[in-house]
Amino acid sequence: MSCTCRAWGSVCLSVAFVWQLYTIFLLVHLHESVPGIRHSRYLFLAMAAFGKRLGKVAAVFPIMYLSGGTCVMLIITGGGTMRLLFKTLCDDEHGQSCNAHSLTGAEWFLVFTCVAILIAQLPNLNSMAAVSFAGAVTAITYCTLFWALSVKKGRPNAVSYSSSLSRDSSPVAKISDILNAIGIIVLAFRGHNVLLEIQGTLPSDFKETSKEPMRRGVSISYVFIAMCVFPLAIAGFWAYGNQASTTISSLIIDDKGLFTSFPQLHKKQVTKFSMGAVYILVITHCLSSYQIYAMPVFDNLELRYTTIKNQKCSRVVRTCIRLFFGGLTFFIAVTFPFLPSLAALLGGFTLVPVTYAYPCFMWLALKKPRPRGAVWCFNFALGCLGMLLSVLLVAAAIRTLADKGLKANFFKP
């Protein structure tokens, strides 16, 4: 059973990795599909491919959610990790808490948001190179530390690799659980909504477009992503089996999440310094990721201001825009701290089409390969499969919420 579960998990992870990497390369090529025109926003590319009205209908909400919603998720994750860091540093070797007063969940969210908005005063994506580099280094480091420590410390007692599917469950329940598991893997990859904006920062002319340097950058970055994702998945399953968290929402904030279960299972083997270092790396990564996903929103708000006022944004206006967005995402994070529990539902009809389906259809609309040819059939089939996957994941998420319910702890992070 162990080999079977690991094999199916590895196959699904590999298929999702290759699939979304293929659609990324499609977007890289479509960025300058028309000579002299650069589609530096996903929405603009969708409007060019599908038409103005259909492009907006298909892409506006997914892009808004994948930018603003991801920032809300990062506040919840970063604030929750700050709370875990405080608890780790405060507790003694016997698990007894010190007398220091910990902040509430909302206060930790506020601390994270204030630091994020302070960093967000950088004017544009071109100035984010150092922040992005820091986020990449910290992500690689904490992923490597996590799987390396898991292997080094060995498997805890009573690790089970048996399937979590109950024999007494109905076929519908089993299919729903399988789809939810696939959804966890599929939703692990994101970033297509900001890819074109990043490519838009590269120089381009008629002799040498941004396609080649962007393609090289994507290839190198995904080598590092593979070095993080695959060892973490394989070593994590080997070390913890089905004791590891099975939902995206409980990676950090739930009591059964990876970063809380690890010190609990190895509390006598892992030092406070090791866990504290991992938490700091996670917080740093969340802060840098917040900047990358928030910058397109800042650009759009500044563009709207410039269009209406017919003047450039001053530093005061730019600061006010960032404060407004930071306050809005903080308010949503405090109001809906259970939002990660809806990740499968929201991601099913936002992230999945944007990542796995739309690029294929946009390629067909803009490049116009030979109808019924091999390239046309492949992209059409892949796009349809992506849309079907989106529908199935949404249906499975709805059934799971209806069956298990939702802990809607409004204003109680």
TrEMBL record:
One Pfam entry name: Aa_trans
GO molecular function, a single term: symporter activity
InterPro entries cross-referenced by the UniProt entry: AA_transpt_TM (IPR013057)
Main location: membrane
Gene Ontology BP terms: amino acid transport; auxin-activated signaling pathway
Ranges for domain Amino acid transporter transmembrane: 9-398
Keywords from the named record: Amino-acid transport, Auxin signaling pathway, Cell membrane, Membrane, Symport, Transmembrane, Transmembrane helix, Transport
GO cellular component terms listed in the entry, alphabetical order: endomembrane system; plasma membrane
Signal peptide limits: none
Membrane topology, record value: Multi-pass membrane protein
Transmembrane regions listed in the UniProt entry: 6-30, 65-86, 98-122, 128-149, 220-240, 277-298, 319-339, 345-366, 373-398
Highest taxon of source: Eukaryota
Compartmental location: Cell membrane; Endomembrane system
PANTHER family attached to this UniProt entry: OS05G0424000 PROTEIN-RELATED
Function summary: Carrier protein involved in proton-driven auxin influx. Mediates the formation of auxin gradient from developing leaves (site of auxin biosynthesis) to tips by contributing to the loading of auxin in vascular tissues and facilitating acropetal (base to tip) auxin transport within inner tissues of the root apex, and basipetal (tip to base) auxin transport within outer tissues of the root apex. May be involved in lateral roots and nodules formation.
Family: Belongs to the amino acid/polyamine transporter 2 family. Amino acid/auxin permease (AAAP) (TC 2.A.18.1) subfamily.
Protein name: Lysine histidine transporter-like 8
Biological source species: Abrus precatorius (Indian licorice)
UniProt gene name: LOC113869291
